[in-house]
Design brief:
- The complex is a heterodimer of chains A (about 110) and B (about 280).
- Chain A has four helices and four strands.
- Chain A is an alpha/beta fold.
- Chain A has a four-stranded parallel beta sheet, with helices on both faces.
- In chain B, about 65% of the residues lie in helices and about 10% in strands.
- Chain B has eleven helices and five strands.
- The relative contact order of chain B is 0.08.
- The mean pLDDT of chain B is about 90.
- Classes of the chains: A alpha/beta (about 110), B alpha/beta (about 280).
Chain lengths: ~110, ~280
């Protein structure tokens, strides 16, 4: 992946697992010096306010550590639910799939 | 007392089943009820046979005129499905009613044959059977109307779907021409259709054209903003086009802003979209 990290969220996240993910990710970014993080949520059928907040936190933490985050693979039903709940995940970058996500990361990190 | 006679009549009906069905079918055909495509002869025959059997069964119960009994429910269900189906296929309410009401004169003829010698019993039997036929008529009308309403609902859904097409203008560019009022129900449909197409076509830009939206108040603006945000979550950027002068004035007056680029014409929006994706239009000359 070069300078990017890819995280694939497969299962439903709950408190401890989410904190674990944040921790692992932060350590990884620092260790590898990654400039971009791709979070693939295409396996998630439901994204509730908890996961929404978690994605937001990861995004902010990564930015502080010098990496940009792009969320990819959101299902249409999930997007609609988030929007209906008023959780638009402002400030979080999104892309349709991994390929577009990488292109976006290139743009954000000044590579493109 | 009336019960005994009704039960006796029920037996007579069962015995004379064949004869009655033949006469009934003839009357039905005389009324041009048999239509080759909707109600072929064998279907009509089957229906008549089952109806007479179920009708006899009802008459053999204790209170056949009482519509609150379980036996009535069963009887009702035995013909409602058939009637609903035929309504959907195009049988008119008159045809539906005649289908069963043509049996009435035959039943009354039978009553006169069996009970003719005893005028009081005869009258009582006619009263009871008449009341039962009235109940049947009500159920026929209900079944017919219900199936018509189902058709209307289905058509409403189809109209909603048809009126929110999502068109692919170019590789990576979608256009959604919204026609008519944008209420929450339609917004749902627009969002679902648009997001689905974004996934299918992997589009980066969606142009939402609101030329066909008569008024844009804060509610409608909210719906549009929701759609914009949903598309954004899917990685697609939105451009709003087709904003008429009055709408622009209303929006500013209400303090509504879309937070995305807006253009007055679809052509301008398309041109902008092409530019964003790095396309340049040149002419051959």
């Amino acid at each position: 992946m070069g300078d990017y990290l890819i995280v694939s969220i497969q299962i439903d996240m709950h408190d401890r697992l989410a904190l674990q993910l944040q921790q692992d990710l932060s350590e990884n970014i620092t260790k590898t010096g990654a400039k971009g993080v791709l979070i693939d949520i295409s396996a998630l059928d439901i994204v509730d306010s908890f996961i929404g907040r978690m994605l937001g936190s990861i995004s902010s933490i990564s930015r502080v550590l010098g990496a940009e985050t792009v969320i990819v693979g959101m299902k249409p039903a999930v997007a609609i639910t988030l929007v209906e709940l008023g959780l638009e995940l402002k400030g979080i970058h999104t892309a349709l799939n991994i390929e577009k996500g990488m292109k976006l990361l290139d743009k954000l990190t000044g590579k493109a | 007392m009336g019960d005994q006679n009704v039960k006796k009549f029920s037996k007579v009906l069962s015995e004379r089943k064949e004869e009655i069905i033949n006469k009934w079918k003839k009357t039905q055909m005389d009324e041009a009820l048999m239509q080759l495509d909707i109600l072929p002869e064998y279907e009509l025959e089957n229906f008549d046979k089952e109806f007479i059997e179920n009708f006899s069964k009802l008459l053999s119960t204790d209170r056949p005129e009482d519509t609150s009994t379980e036996e009535w429910q069963n009887f009702k269900e035995s013909f409602q499905g058939f009637i609903s189906e035929k309504s959907k296929q195009g049988l008119s309410i008159q045809e539906n009613l005649l289908l069963i009401l043509t049996l009435k004169p035959l039943i009354f003829d039978s009553i006169k044959e069996v009970f003719g010698k005893d005028p009081d019993t005869c009258t009582r039997m006619v009263e009871i059977l008449s009341s039962i036929f009235d109940n049947i008529t009500v159920e026929l009308a209900n079944a017919h109307i219900k199936s018509r309403e189902e058709i209307i609902t289905r058509q409403e859904e189809e109209i909603t779907e048809l009126s929110t097409p999502v068109v692919r203008l170019w590789k990576g560019i979608l256009a959604v021409p919204v026609i008519g009022t944008l209420d929450s129900a339609r917004t749902q449909v627009v969002m679902e259709t648009l997001l689905q197409r974004i996934v299918e076509t992997e589009s980066d830009i969606a142009i939402i054209d609101i030329t066909g939206v008569p008024t844009v108040d804060t509610q409608v603006a909210q719906h549009i903003i929701k759609t914009i945000n949903a598309a954004r979550l899917m990685g697609a950027e939105c451009i709003i086009s087709g904003i008429r002068p009055q709408i622009a004035q209303t929006m500013v007056g209400l303090g509504v802003s879309f937070e995305v680029e807006t253009k007055s014409s679809l052509a301008d929006a398309f041109s902008l979209a092409l530019k964003k994706l790095g396309y340049v239009i040149t002419s051959e000359k």
